[in-house]
Amino acid sequence: MDSSAIYLDTYVLQQDMRIRLPKAIISNLDAIKGVSLFDVFYDSNKREIILRLHEQKKDEEDNK
């Protein structure tokens, strides 16, 4: 794991395939429930799922 990674908690994969996010993620990333988008990446070598707050590009903002 990356040295800058911080362990937050362990969560169960729900029956409907959801994973609850720790409240620390919402507050530390300034994410807004029901609004913020996350980009999802999978690292097959490390068997890791990576979530990144989606950065809206200028052309995406213009299409709203």
Main traits of this protein?
64 residues; alpha+beta; two-stranded antiparallel ribbon; globular
Architecture overview:
By secondary structure, the chain is α+β, with helices and mostly antiparallel strands. It contains two helices and two strands. It has helices spanning 23-28, 58-62, and strands spanning 38-43, 48-53. A two-stranded antiparallel ribbon has the order 1-2. A hairpin with a 4-residue loop joins β1 (38-43) and β2 (48-53). The longest helix is centred in the middle third of the chain and has 6 residues, at 23-28. The protein is globular, with a radius of gyration of 14 Å.
| Terminal CA distance | 37 Å
> Can you write the helix and strand succession as a string?
HEEH
Strand order of the largest sheet: 1-2
Number of H- or I-type helical stretches: 2
Broad shape: globular
| Average residue-wise pLDDT | 85
Percentage of residues in strands? 15-25%
What does the largest sheet look like?
Answer: 2 strands, antiparallel
Compute the CA-based radius of gyration. Answer: 14 Å
Q: Are there runs of 5+ residues with pLDDT below 50, and where?
A: none
Helix- and strand-based class? alpha+beta
Share of helix, binned:
10-25%
- Number of DSSP E strands: 2
